[in-house]
Design a protein that fits this description.
375 residues, Rossmann fold, 2 domains, two-stranded antiparallel sheet, Homoserine O-succinyltransferase, AB_hydrolase_1, amino-acid biosynthesis
Length: 375
């Protein structure tokens, strides 16, 4: 059974300096908390979200039975991250379209919607904003910071930017930076959006339109990279959508996989903001903590104090296991405490969101050990 979740909002009037040289002020962060903060304030777990997720990590909204949080199978009473023992915090990142200040909101200095004028944000900027929220909540040190995919990059960055502020980092299906292939996928998706006639240079709100065609294509491209070839073949194969005979058409939907991708694209274009998509994929591209250390991830992680759990999945070709092993090696080079699990799962990158008994058991065992430190 899922519990009732309640969104909360915190306003920050002071300016937040951004890595790109700009700053943002009078911004709001949306967040949710689950469980109870103990008297020592030592049982807090920060969960960082991936590209199209939000602060709604677990539970359901009152009166909305199908509103489960995106990691509801992982977090809650009696679940691997047990909210009977931990105080879990989910934060919606700046620039998102799910409650925190983003391109759809009004610029306090101009009175106009930000649109394309919203400043570029990075993983490091998100971590700085999250740290400010924790300050407001009176949490000086986290029991753990946790995330999958882009959320895992934030967890990694937390251990570099604020090495004394967490005891553990749980990084799932992630990487220390994007490969050229991954940047290429992001760029094709962005081109689909910015070349949509309804994009209007990012100021489409003023025109009363949404670049849905570009968003649909961007989502279809992304969704292909989240699944493995095995899963797509098992679910769809070469099945035709209608009947047993092809229509011999270049424009009709012929195959089941085409129908599925178009359905995913249609859904996405109804709820996601185009400027947010550009911002978040660019933040993915820019993340590279080794860059300031001559390309050495070992040197980038030299100041890390947190103990680590890293999890990867065998069929994840977007963030392949080899990328997690790069982080493991850099941590071991620095004589850090690190556990690593490579799960042989067929689901591709999306495996980090799915129910896999081995994966769940690894995370449960790790958090059981963290809980023992709280006694």
């Amino acid at each position: 059974m899922s519990f009732i979740a309640t969104p909360q909002f915190m306003h920050f009037p002071e300016a937040l300096p951004l890595q790109g040289g700009a700053s943002i002020q009078d911004y709001t962060l949306a967040y949710e908390t689950y469980g109870t903060l103990n008297a020592e304030r030592s049982n807090a777990v920060l969960v960082c979200h991936a590209l199209n997720a939000s602060h709604h990590v677990a539970g359901v909204y009152e009166g909305q039975p199908k509103s489960e949080g995106w990691w509801d199978n992982m977090i809650g009473p009696g679940k691997p991250v047990d909210t009977n023992r931990f105080f879990v915090i989910g934060v919606n990142n700046l620039g998102s379209c799910f409650g925190s200040t983003g391109p759809m909101h009004t610029h306090p200095g101009t009175g106009s919607v930000y649109g394309a004028d919203f400043p570029v944000v990075t993983v490091e900027d998100w971590v700085d904003a999250q740290a400010r929220l924790l300050d407001r909540l009176g949490i000086t040190q986290l029991a753990a910071v946790m995330g999958g995919s882009l959320g895992g990059m934030q967890a990694l960055s937390w251990t570099i930017q604020y090495p004394e502020r967490m005891r553990h980092a749980v990084v799932v299906a992630s990487a220390p930076n994007l490969t050229a292939e991954n940047i290429a996928f992001n760029e094709v998706a962005r081109r689909a959006i910015v070349t949509d006639p309804d994009f209007h240079g990012g100021h489409f709100y003023a025109h009363g339109v949404v670049p849905k065609r570009g968003l649909r294509i961007a989502r279809m491209i992304g969704h292909i990279t989240y699944l493995s070839d095995d899963v797509m073949n098992e679910k769809f194969g070469r099945q035709l959508r209608d009947g047993l005979e092809p229509k011999y058409s270049t424009q009709d939907i012929e195959f089941q996989i085409e129908s599925y991708l178009r359905h995913q694209g249609d859904k996405f274009s109804d709820y996601f903001d185009a400027n947010t998509y550009l911002l978040i994929t660019r933040a993915l591209d820019y993340f590279d903590p080794a860059l300031r250390h001559g390309g050495s991830l070992t040197r980038a992680l030299a100041a890390v104090r947190a103990r680590y759990l890293l999890v990867s999945f065998s069929t994840d070709w977007r963030f392949a296991p080899a990328r997690s092993r790069e982080i493991v090696k850099a941590l071991l080079d620095n004589h850090r405490d690190v556990a690593y699990a490579e799960i042989d799962a067929p689901h591709g990158h999306d495996a980090f969101l799915l129910e896999d008994a081995r994966y769940m058991a690894v995370v449960r065992s790790y958090f059981d050990n963290i809980a023992k430190e709280l006694v």
